[in-house]
Each structure stands twice: as C-alpha cells, then as structure tokens.
Structures
1.
Amino acid sequence: MEPDAQLVQQCLRGDGPAWAELVRRHTRRVFNLCYRFTGNPTEAEDLSQEVFLRIYRTLASYRPASGAFPTWLTSVTRNLLVDHYRRTRRDRVTDSIEDAMPQLEEKHSTARTPDKLAQAAELSTQLQRALSRLSPELREAVILRDLQSLEYSEIQTVLQVPEGTVKSRINRGRIELAKILEEMGLRPA
Amino acid sequence: MDWNCTYTEERLSDYLEGALTAEESAAFSAHARVCANCGPLVARVSSLVNQMHRLEPMEQPEHLVSKILDATLGPQPSKEGWRRWFTWAPAMLQPRFAMGIATVAACCVIVVQAGGITPGKLRRANLNPADMFRSANRQAHLTYARGVKFVNDLRVVYEIQSRLEPAPAPATIPPSPRQEPETKPQPSNPQQKSETHPGHSEARSERIFAYIVSSDLTVALDGSLP
C-alpha cells in the first residue's frame, strides 16, 4: 500500500485514481469524527463531503514534514466542525428540550436487547447522547483520544493548544461523560 | 503521601494510563479504596474508557465515497464493457448467498441420484426432450410397478399368516366361584402344545409350503380379499 504522502504527491500531479484511493482510505475516519461530534448521520455525511472538498482544494498546503496526513485531515475536519458548531448553535438551543425526551424510553429498551451486537449499538447511541451534552471543547478532546485513538501530541497539533491543556480537557471530559451517563441511568458494565 | 479527592479527579486519566509514579499510584489506589466518592468514580471512568476503546467505528454510508468523488473529480463514468455485467458478482460472495447456492447444488445432486441419472453415461442423445420424457415415464412406471408388487407380496404373506394361525384366544376371565362346579376340565390340545415346542416353526413352514403348493393363490386371494 502506498503511503499517504506519496498519494498526495500523485494527486497534486492530477492523478484521479490516487485521489480516489485517498478518499476511500480516510472516509470512514472523517465520517466517524463528524458523526461523534454532531450526533447526526445525515449531518455527518454532508460534513464529510465538505471536508473532502476542502481537502481537495487545499491539498497543496499539506506539508508532510509538519505531521502525518491523517493528523492534517483531522485538523481540517475539526476546524470545519467548529465552524459548523458555531453556525448551528442557535438551532440547537431550541432542539435541546426535545432531545431530552427519548432518553427515558431508550433506557428501558436497553434491558430487553439480548443480542450483544444490539447492546453495542445501544451503548453507542447512549454514548452519543451523553457526548452531545458535553461542552464542545471537552467533547472533541475525548473523541480524538478515546474514539479516534490519537496520541496526545497529535491532539495537541489538531487543537492547537498546549499538551497540559489537552490532558486536562481529556480528563475532565471523561469524568463529565461518566457523570452524564450516571444521570441517564446508565452505568458502564 | 497525602492524597485527597481533588488529586484523584485531577490525576484520574494519568492513573488509568499508567502515567503516575509508583508512589503516586499507591497513594491514589489507597485513597480510592477508602473514599466513598472516589472509588465508584474511578470504577465508572475506567469502565467507560475501556468501553470507548472497544467501540467499533461506524460504517460510512455506502454512497458517500462516490458522492465525494463526484463532487471533486466530476461524475464518475459507470463501469464499461464486460465488467458492468458482473457488478452483481461481489454480492454473491456474501455468506448468505454462498450458503444458499451450496444448498441448491446439494439438492440438485440428490435429485439426480434419486432419478438414477449417471452423469458419466450421459450421451448427447439422452438430452433429446422426447428421450428424456420417455426415460422419465419408464422410470416412473417401473417405480410404480415395484411398489405395487411389494404391496401385493405383503398382502399374500399376511393372508397366509391369517389363515394358518388360530384365532387369538379370548381374554381369560377368572371364573366366579358359583360357576366353578359347572366348568369341565378341558382336554389339553396337542396342537397348541406343539406350538410352544421349540421345533414348531419348522412344522409351520411346512404347512405354509403345502398350502402354497396345493392351492391356487390367485384364486384364493381374488375370492377372499376385497
């Protein structure tokens, strides 16, 4: 498998298949990041598309020396997510009360699902609800560390904050998340 | 080393990721063991982090990659030439379809075996529809005739058995004390005695043989059976 940096060089020379390969390789990561941040699959799909459009236009600005391609891709995605969060903040205030309603119903349905797969899917949904109640700063730190498995140094590059701040946000985010899940009546097994 | 709840919250992630010194880690654990607030908190956060690490990333929507490629490179040409005729092929490799195909193949083999078809002996002439029909018709008639013969043989055997064997003895009712004087002692039947004899089956076979030879079976059956 060719390294990302080589594919990027081929893309810059106008190689379509190299770009297609780059997209195939990283779509899942970008989609997951967008989904975990927004909690909405449709929104995540639109945002993923927007991310790759932006990447396509600004590919020449990527410098392999300054970090791996996935880290750069995550930075671009994160910046776009922050823009999107600011743009849609007003809409979310009105939605927050309605969002709280289905939580009780789903809490009961958790006990009825015997299948492990269904339980994992349910856990993922509940985790998503809890994540959406975290502040964006803590949320993005937890997502990058625990769901995207980035190193502290990579998160530092993506968020453009000192390592101490990164660690502190991740720590606070985890504790807050556990408390939110406890309030929702869910205790991680 | 003094440790309190504030330290526990601040250093929780360091503890979980093994970034504390041995001394700090021991103090952390000792505090978590005795503190009613910190113990459960550490357990909850630890479990949550483990579960998040085990969580599989979601699958992206199927059409997302092609949408991105269409938006960046322009509409992608559909697969050309003979390849477009085989776009369904990857779906056939799904376990569900593969198992279905294997089951159908196994059924075909069973049907072919049951039909008495030997693939090695097949000739081009056998594939002629008229020949195939004739062969199938012959096979069906043969099977029917075998069945009829088998049933008729069974009927003959049961018929002979029913004629030779004495009627089953009625259930013995213990005689009432009043009837006792009236009952006369029955003379023992020598034939019945002989049936309990170990050699009675030979005698019976001889009788069956004699019956078959002496009587016209067809007439006997036609006259006695409905």
2.
Amino acid sequence: MKMNSMIKITSLAIAITGLFSGIATAQDQSQALGKSEATIELSYYKKTDMSKTAVAVIKAKNNDGKFVSAKNARVNFYVMHDKEQQLLKNVNTDNNGQAVIMLQKDLPLDEDLSFTIVAKIENDNLYEDAEEQVHYKDANLTLNLNPNDTARLVTAKVTEIGKDGKEIPVKGAEVKFYVHRLFGIMPATDDNTITTDEKGEASFAFPKNIPGDTKGVIIVAARMEDNEQFGNVENKATASWGTVLAMDKDPFPRALWEPYAPLPLVITISTLFGGVWFIYFFIFFQLRKIKKEKQLKMR
Amino acid sequence: MATEKYNLKQEIETVREDCLRPTQKWGRSTQTWIGCLLIVMGWGLYCYIHQLRDGLGVTAMRDYVSWGLYISTFIFFIGISHSGTLVSAILRITKQEWRRPITRSAELLTFVSLLFGGIIPIIDLGRPDRLPNLVLFGRIQSPLMWDIIAICTYLVGSTLFLFLPMIPDMALCRDRLTVCDSPFKKFKKWLYTKMAIGWKGTKSQWHRLELTMTIMTIVIIPVAVSVHTVVSYIFAMTLRPGWNSTVFGPYFVAGALYSGSAGVVLGMAAFRKLYHLEKYITPRHFDLMGRIVLALTLIYAYLNLNEYWIPAYNMVTAEGHLLSDLFYGSYSKAFWTCQFGTVLLPIIIMSIPKGRTVTILTITCIIIVAGAWVKRYLIVVPTLLHPFMPIQEVPGTWSSYFPNYVEFSVTAACLAGIFLVITLFSKLFPMMAVWEVEKGILIEHDKQAAIELRTKREAEEAKIMGKRLKTGFEPLK
Amino acid sequence: MQEDNKQNNKTDRRNFLRKSLITGSILTAGAIGLEKVFPGEKDSGEKVKVLTPDGKVYVASSEHLKEYRPPPVTNAEARKGIANKKFVMVIDLAKCDGCKTCTVACQAMHFTESDREWIKVFKMQDADATAPYFFPKPCFHCDNPPCTKVCPVNATFKRQDGIVLIDNERCIGCRMCMAACPYSTRFFNWSHPDPKQTAAVGNTPYSPEQSVPRRMGTVEKCDFCPDMIRQGKMPACVSGCPMDAIYFGDQNEDAVTNASGVTVKLSQLLEDNAGYRHLEELGTKPRVYYLPPKNRKYPIPDMKSVGNEKKEKKHIEMDMGIMQM
C-alpha cells in the first residue's frame, strides 16, 4: 500500500514537472517564433558644422524571408567608456527603419583616441536581439578654395585629431568631390576621387559647365566615405563656379494654357461676338422705337 | 369685285379664328397631358436633388466614361435647335412663300430646345454652386467658354427671332380679347398687351419690324452655324481618337440641320393634327419639307462617310481600336442600325414621292430624330472607352457604361420640360404666324388677280386680232 | 369713420402679420431645404491651433499633426510656384519591377482611396513581337498641357516651376480636363470623400499644393508633391521606390536624384540610356522622361493576367513587405 502511494505521488510529481517544463519550453518557443530576425547597419557621420551623428538602419525578415525596413524598432545606443557600455539614448526607428542620434562633442575616448558606438536591440517585442558597433577616430576635413577662382580649384585637407588636439595630416585617404543639387549631391565628374598626399591634401578642379543659380553660385562638397579609421566625414563651401541661370523674364506669358489668352484669339472672339451683340442692341433700340409710337393713330 | 373682296375678308377672318381657337380653351386632354409632363418633371427633379446631395456618383458615369448621357443629350438638343434657323431664316432669305404656316413652330422649337439644351451642362456639373466662377475667372481659351458665349448669343438671337414676328399677332390677340371675366383672362390680356409693345400697325412700325426681321434673319444664320461648330470643338479640341478630327465642325452642323429639320416636320405634323390646321399645313408642305430633309440627310451621310472611312482606311493604332469596336465590337449593333436605319433608309424613303406624304414622312422623321440621339451617344461614349493608355486593373464599373435610372429620369424631365413649354406656349399664343399667313393670302390673291387681268387682256387682244384676220383690212394705226 | 379706420388698421396689421409669417416660414423652409441638399463640411477630431507662414491661425485636428505635413502656402503662392526651377522626372523602365510601392506611397501621402492610382503602373506591350514591360505613369505635367488649355475657370493651372496643379476650391466639375488629357491621368470625386480619410486629414485649410482635403464634385491628380519639395524632400513615389527606378530633380540644375540619394546629371542619363517621352507625337511636351527597358533587372510582366480585376490593396502591401506594427 505504501509502495503504491509512493509510486503514485512520484509519478504525479514527474508529470507536473514535465507539464510545467513543457509549458515553459512552449512559451520560450512561441516567444522565439513571434520575434523576427533583425540586422543593424550602423554608420557614423561628421558634418560640416562638426556635429557627429550615428545612424542605425534596422532591417527585419518578413514572412517571405526578405529583409525589409523595420518600423518602430526600439534601438539603444551606447558608447564604450572604460570598457563599459554607457547608455546614450533610446530611439525608435521611423517609417524607413532609420534611427538617428546626435553624439556629443566630447565623446569618451580610448587610449588610441578612438571611440566606439554600439547600437543594440534588446528585449524588443517584435524583433530578436541584435548588436552592432563601430569604432572610429575623430578627423577633420577642411576645404580651401577661392570663390571667384576661374580655375575652380579646391584643396581638401584631411587631418587626424591627435593628443592635445594636435592635427596630424592623413596620407592615402580617399576624398570624393561633389556638388550639391536640390535633392542630393552629385559627383562633380565621373572620376571624382582624389587620394590625399603626405600633407594630407587632395586637390580637385571642378568642371566648367555646372549649372548654378541666378548668381552662378554652387555649393561644393568633399567627403570621405566609409573610411576605415574615420567613418564618414564631409565639408562643404559655396563658390561662384556655376553657370549663371537666366531668370524667367515673364514666367506667365500669354498662351493658350496660361491665365491670359493670346491676343489674336481675344480680338477675334471679341470682334465676332461683339458685332453680333451690337446688332442685338440695335434691334432692342428699334423695339423701343416701336413701343414709343403707340400714341399714333392706326393705319 | 365686291364678292371677291368679301371672300378675301372672310378668308382672313377664318385664318384668324383657326389660329386663335387653340388659345381659347384648355380641354381635358390638354390638362391630362400637362399633368403627365409635370409628373415626369417632378420625378426628374427628385432624382436631380439626389444627385446634388450625393454627387455625380449616383449616375453610371465613372472615371473613364466621364461624360455620358447628359452630354450626348446636350449635343442632341443643341442640334435640334437648328430647326428654326433653317426653316425661318433660310426659307425667308430665299423668299419661299410656303414657309409661312410653319415658321412659328420651328422658331419655338429652336428657342425651347436651346433653353433646355443650355441647362443640361449645368446639370452635368460636379459643383453647380460654383457657377459664378465662369464669370469671375473665365478663360476665353477654353472651348467650354466659347460654348457658353455662343449658346447665350444664340439664345438671345432666337428669342428675338421668335419674338419679333409675334408682335403683330400679340396685338391681334390683345384687340380680340375684349371680355376679361376671369383672372386668367386678365392675365392673358396683360400678357398680350405687354408683348405687343404698343403695336398699332402704323407704316413706320411695320417698316421697323421688317428691318429688324431682315437683320435678324441674316445674323441668325452665322450665329447658328457657330453654335454647333463650337459645341463640336469641345470634342475636336481634345487629342482623343474619334474626336480629334478636322471635319467635326461641318459634321456637327450638318447633323444639327438634319435632325433639326426632322424636328420641324414633327412639329408641323403635331400641330396640324392637334389644332386642325390641315387647311394651312398641306401635304405640299410635307412634300417640300421632305425634300429639304432629304437634301440635308444626304449632306449628313456624306460627312458621316468622310468621318469614318478615312480613319478606317488608315487604322492608326488608337483609332483602330475605336473603329473595331464600332464596326464589329460591342457598339456595332447600335452603329450599323444608326447608319442604315436612320440615315440610309430615310434617304431611300424620302427619295420616292410617296415617302414624302404626311404619315410616312412623320414616321421617317421620328426615326431620324431618335437615330440622331443614339448617334450623338455613339460619338461621346465609345471614344471615352478607348483612351491612349490601356484600361487595366480598374473597378468593373469604370470599364463599361450604360446610363442608369438617374440619368434617364433627368433627361426625360428635360424632354418633358421641352414639351411642357411648347404646350403652354401653343395654348397662350397662336402657333401660326397669323399676319404672315394673311400676307401670304394677300400676295396669292394679288397674284391671282394679276394673272386674271392678264388673261382677260390677252383674250381681248386675241379677239381683236381674230376680227382683223376675218376682214382682211389693216387696222388703223 | 373712426371705427372704420380702426377696422382697416386691424385688417392691415393682420394682413401684414400673415404675409410676414408666410414669407418667414418659406425662407426658413428654403434654408433648411438647402442645408439638407448642400450639407456643410463636418468637423472631427481633437483641435489644436497652428500658425501658417502668412500669419493666419487655423485649427487642425491633433491626429493630423502627428504627420510631418507643414501648414500650406497661400493660394496665390501655390499658383505662382517656386521661381527659377523646372521640375522633371525620369523613370527607368529597366529597373521597374511592377511592385506598385510608388502607388501605395502616393495614396498614403494624399489619403487617397485605393482605386485612385495617381501614379499607375501599367503592363505595356507595344506590339505583339516586342517584350512587355512595367510602365509607371504619374501625371506628366506637360509644357503644352491639353488639360490646362480647356479649363473654363482656371481651376487647373501651370506654375512657373512646370508643375500643373488643381485648385479644388474653384473647380466646377465640368470634367473637360478629363476628356482632354490623353494619358488618363485625372480622377473625379464622384461622391463624398471617405469619412475615415476626412477624419485623418482633419481641418487643414485646403491648398492646391497638398490636394487635401478633397472636395466632392472636383477633379484630382498627381501633383508632384509641391509641399514636400518646399521642404527639400522628393515626391512620395520617388522616395518610396525600392528599386530606385524613379528620379526627380530640377531641369535647370541638370540633375536628378533617386530614392537612395544617387544624383546624376540629367542630360547624361538621358543620353546614355536613350531617354524618351511617352506619346511624344501628341505634342504635349511632357516633363517625365522614360529610359527604355534595356538590360532589365526584373522579369517581364505576364500579359495574360492583365484584366480589369482590381488588385486588393492588402496584396500589394504584402508584396512590398512593409512591416506593420
């Protein structure tokens, strides 16, 4: 009798444990099934105004297995400080799957004067955990040009910021030269990449026939793109190197599709129908005369 | 001589009585007819209010067939409005005496169909509450603007053209209406007096009237031609296959004259029967009008041939799709019925003298008018269903069109409105230009008297010549 | 005599009262009737006050402000356009895979119903022996616009920057422009706008540059998103294209940009790829150029499946793979 009850209790216990672990496993599995696999593409940009930004583009796998932009994914940005991750900010991705943060000017640096930015997805309801980090040094890109130079020459200097803020020229960095257009930047020529020399300088002559605005002004830019050491650095300047755009003297001339009609049309229609209405008025006048004669005797 | 004069006076008196009799009583059948018309108009008004509230989407029109029954009917009514111009103006200018009994009904048909034809584009507007924008912000480069100007000009012109010959008749009515015992009769007296504008029949008044009528006769012809030409420009000024044709102006004018003249015949037949004017509107009138309708149908058939044969020979891609649809596609039955049944068949019927008798000509003209309406529909809708860009992946209601009850009701209400105005007019005013018919009788009488005088003189001279031959003597000089 | 006068006065007063009562009730009935026939616009949503560039205050629904849309410019500015610019679009048919992301992006931007495709992707086959291709067609904003020529009230107009817009406060709904456009680009608001979309748009004052809120009985079409251009952004279809098939830019600058930000010289692009315009022989001078589908990147469309069935909006979104919350 005791054996029987012992066996019963043990088997019951095993069953209950198995049940709970089964439920726990099922929960884990279902949680894993609900979240999508996500990838992070992390980039670093330094702009003309010396501001630093980090951009994370999150792509997640959809039902068809394709990676598409992930909206509203919560991304946590950290900076490495003394081998520890310091939280900077939490940002949600926008409609295009992008999350952008501004980095502060005085980022914590390692011994080799580089900084590390980490972007993580942690404990998100929709997306699996993911992590990506970038590791760059600070660099400056300066432009030297004469806005009225007929040779249209610009010299870009790339310097690394060393100890105590000393600027060390960088040799062998690829600098690309662009001109700003309304919605984006356009390479100035097909072959717009110049490598910096020992002095850290890269010179480039802009072509002659770039259309400018009404004063012939264009905005020229130089960029280091995806440099291994420095990330993306850019600088821009205005110069009067573009061709002058002729202003519209009369943006709304007389035409069939404009608010004001061509004069021949106006004259023709006015003459034709004006003539007819003039005759009508003459007839109305005659009718009035008939009316006025009612005092006279009958025939 | 005295007996002749008596006969003439009696004849004129009979004319006046016959013309004025319909205006003097409103029988049971008239009231029933007007009642029916009012019911149709009331239902149409209800449907139109439904359209105003819920938008043009209550019709069957959608984004491809954005113009449907309303615009087809608009062209048709403007076409019918060429009737008065044709009969009154052209026959006046060519001094055709037989036109006299039928001018007023033709001019009335012009005026009324123009009135309702002008209302239909307003019914077709998506935002009729913004009508003042046409005046405030109008652009003279737009064919619609030309349309508005031309139709307004023609409306004023045809009103004048209808009103001027009415003046002496209004004076006649005014003078004959001596007993005003009911408020309605009082109203009629007031109306006649106002419309007679003090007409006393003096020489100078007649002179002015003849002058203005001559001027209007001359002016109304180019105005009428311009109206339907401008209506055709609404289509021809677009780039669409089937519409972008250089022959559209003359094509539409010919179509207007053809359907308008058939409308005149129908008016003639209706008033002849209903108001017992058989003495004045004779089978000879039908024969002559029949010849005119035949001539105009031939011109229309010729332009029709040009309009379709030239593009069919070339089969340019976009036009090719349209023509295939018209010739052997979904619109083939309607198209060929129109061409053979309402153009070719009437030509054949009217070419034989028997085809120009009263009954047969009336039936033929009904066929012509109905066919003209269907033909206008075939001009508007198939082109809209064959745009340059293919029709792909759109809701089913967009890719096909047939008018629904709202469009039919509102169109029927406009037609009923035309009949109503004609009926009311014919009950208030004489449907024949009394003074013109009288003048015709006088002219005829003078002609007869002149002929009699001549035959008398010739008989006398023959007598004298005969006498001379008998005696053999030379007559003394 | 006095009594007679009194009696007359009473009758006069009674008559006057009767007449004014009748007139008053007729006027009221008429006003109520008109109100029923032309109901006014209905308000919806929580209200917030916003200041427009020209200093006017308007009340917007807070839901609307969640979007990034700025307050619109005045009607006069919208009619003039942006000075010294001439916008142009280039569509690379070799890159278009018929996904219709451009269509859906445009519809989201303008709160349009799903059957209104302001940019419509056609499956074209020019001849029996030539290969079919996908053909996205926005409004071409022609330089010799057949639609603008025929508008009787100047409700559709061409601006100095080349864009053709519609002013739905002035349009009388005659649909002459729809008959005149050879590219089947225009749509008509046949009935009341969808109440959900009216609520989403909120109380924004109407501007031809935004084409919302829409008005019943007026015409609408692709507008090249001028309000986005004023913010330095490209139209929704251009930036929404996942294949970078659509370029947009200023012809005066001789540069066009695609969704990824790649900016190229317009004249070079057209020269290298033999750019052309659709139905050039009609003389409308369109501002949208096409690059022929040579060395196409995606398979040709199946012409057998082309019919009049309307693809469900859901399926289009699933094809695009937009992740929803």
3.
Amino acid sequence: MQIPTHSIVNYSAAKLLATTSLLLGISFALLPSAGYAQSDVPEIDPAVDRRSIDEFDIDSENIEIGIFGGVIGIEDFGSDTLVGARIGYHINENFFLEASYGQSTAGETSFEVLSGGAQFLTEEERDYVYYDISVGYNFNGEVFVTDSLVFNTDFFVTLGAGNTDFAGDERFTVSAGVGYRILVTDYLSVRIDVRDHIFNSDIIGEEKSVHNLSGALSLTVFF
Amino acid sequence: MLKLCKSMLMITALMLQFFSASAAELRVTVTTPFIDVHSGPADEFPVFHVIAQGDEIDILKERTGWYKIRTVTNRDDEIEGWIYKENLTATVLSDGVALKPPSAGFDEYLSRDFEITLMGGLLDSNNALTVTGSWVWNKNLSVDASYTQALGDFSDNKLWSVRMRHTLYPTWKVSPYLALGTGEIRTSPNANLVQSGDEVRKSSSYEVGVGVRYYLTDGILIKAEYRGVIALTDRDEQERLDQWLVGASVFF
C-alpha cells in the first residue's frame, strides 16, 4: 500500500509558503518604504489615503446673476431707458461667459418730431429688445476706500454676439464693452457696464452700421 | 407684543440656522511649513497672511478654484482670505486623513457631465451664432441640443436640432468628432422686403457634423466644426445648407 506522502509534503510546503509570503507581505506593507516590493507588486500609491474635497458640501460660487438698469442711445431714435438681466458663469479667475437680455422703447427721430406727425414706426416696432452672449476677461484688483475699508474689484472687457429685435426686424448684433465690478461682499456685486451694440440697419433708408451705446448699473449675486 | 417678539426671534433663529446649515464649513489642519493667503480669489490678489504648519483653518466656500478660509484662533484676530485649491493637499482632516483638491485640468474634463458651447461662423453666407448644451453620456457619446440663428439681409434662419455626437479619441487632448441629428429650420423674410410671402416657413431637417475639439487650458475647450444641414422643404428640391463654425466650450 502506497502512502501519498508527496501530496502531504506539497500541501505543507504550499501552506508554509503562503504563510511566509503573507507575513512578509504584511511586514513590507508596514515598512514605510515600498522600495523592496517594487519589482513584483503593482504600483501602489505611496501617498496617504486622501479624501476628496468634493465629498464635502463646500459652497461653490461661480455663477453670477443680476439685473441692470440704465440708458441706451438708439441711433436716430434718441436715448431711452434700458432694463435687463444677466447670467454669467465664471470659468476661471479671469474668464467668464455671460448672457444678457435688455429691453427699451425707442423714441422719435428728429424727422418725426419736426414733421409733426409722420411716424416711421408703429408703437410695437419701437420696442427694442436684445440678447447676447459675451466672453469677458477680468483684470482683478482692489479699491481702498479708507485704511480699513477695502473692496475686491474687477475691471473687465467683454466681446459678444447676439440678436437685436427692433423696427420689426431681427439683426445680428456684435457687442463690445468695458465694465467695473465692485464686490461689496463675496457674493454681492455692483457693476457698471458700458457697451456698444453694433448691427447693420436700413430702418431709415440706406443700409448702414448702427452703434447703440448703453450704460447700465447692475446688481448681481454670486451663487 | 412679547409674543410677536418671541416669534420674530424664532424666525430669525430658524433663518440663521438655515443659512449656517447651507454654508457647510470644514475644519482642517495645515501640514506644510506654510500656505499663502491671498486677499481675493485670484493669483493677482496680494498675499497678506501666511498660515503656519499646525494651524487650524475653516474652509468656507469656493470660487473658480480658490477656497475662502478662516483661521481658527482663540483670540479675536481671526483672518479670512483665499487659498489656491492645490494647497488643500497640504491639509489634513481631524481624523488625520489628507484632503484632495477637486480634479483639475484635463482630468476634470474627463469626468464632466455637461458642456455648454458657443460658436460663431457662417450659415451659407450669413453670420450665424450657435449655442449648444450637451449631456455627456459616456466617454465617447454625448447628446447635444443646439440652437442656431443666422440673421441675413433678406431672411432670418433659426435652426434647432438634437443630435448624437461621437468623440473618436476622448482621452486625447485633440480629438475629432462626428455628429448626426435632426431638427427644424424656421425661415422668415425680412420686414423691409416686399410683403408677399411674409410668413414663417418651417421645415424639418437632418444634419451631419464633423469637427475637432481641443482642450486648451483651465476648463476651456476650442472647437471647429462643419455641419451639413438638409432641409426637407415642401418644394420638389431639398435644400442643403453648409455651416462652418468655430467656438469654445466650458463644462461642469
């Protein structure tokens, strides 16, 4: 009768090997340096366990939303009150994207006033509505009101394109502007915006490039 | 009167609780020799304070990669300022676990959920402006909802479409993409033209798109694209519109 000694031996050897390697593994793992095991162990991040900041509910304030009011000079139609709203997204510390909507009602051309009654446009056509999307660049700064009263500020330039609905027509409109933002608190800002809205128009006959300058004061919040 | 005062106080307390609850704060300890504290959320703002190793700070909020912090002291001279996100790696939580800043750069792009794209260009020979919102389904595929307006001298075209976009090599910084979609075109003649046929024409459309995107930096992508739009008109012939676009995207 044969005794299967080899299998017993093999089993014991395997067990011994497993135990030894486990112990070795633990001792290596406990060693501060992972250098020894580099050849046969896949790369282990030597850095300590990290928890991502994303797991915590830290308030992010990259979106700016606000309302504005001001004056727009509609070429040939005088200066009129402008009101509107904007929403922006701050991509990084310098660049931001912004969508604006504004509306005004055009006055009368000098011809209409002098002729005493002849009207170019119907009341409805006098509604001036625009929207555009702009890219802005912030030049960050500070303003020192007194020794201890300091506000963060941005001087910014914007360039955008959009649509102007006026005199019964929609026109592709390019807008360029500059502005100044004072952050009263981290999340509340007061802004001054000056923009030129440029489009081609043939409202009073000949086709020409029209420049409508607007100046507005905005109140915005970051959230 | 007393009752009114009491209820007002209670409302105020509740509101305070609400606001303090919404603005979660996180206390961490600094592990590097120092961290610069800026007076505003940008590199340009001056460093006005330095937090030393072992100091405790509260993280209050985030803006464009900068974190507002408040120093924790027993005295009244606590300081509020801004530190850059990379400095979070040099802080540990109360249980000794280190903090990891949010993924930045291209890694952040790879884990995005939404994209917003603004493009300008030509639709046939008219200036066209396109806004696209995308939902990123997986590494390769995204679903785009796109709106284009091309306001010409004689007529205005407004197009919207929904399409599927396939990015061929999503892990490359430069990658071509293909898109296939369907939508609608609305064409209206300008008011200054002869009044006949002054109604808006609507037609269904199909579009194919070929483009390339490039990850520029700091969360901005550059895109250039061609779209071929087939309008299914009521007339005998189908109308084809060629659109050439360049623009930029941001993602969340």
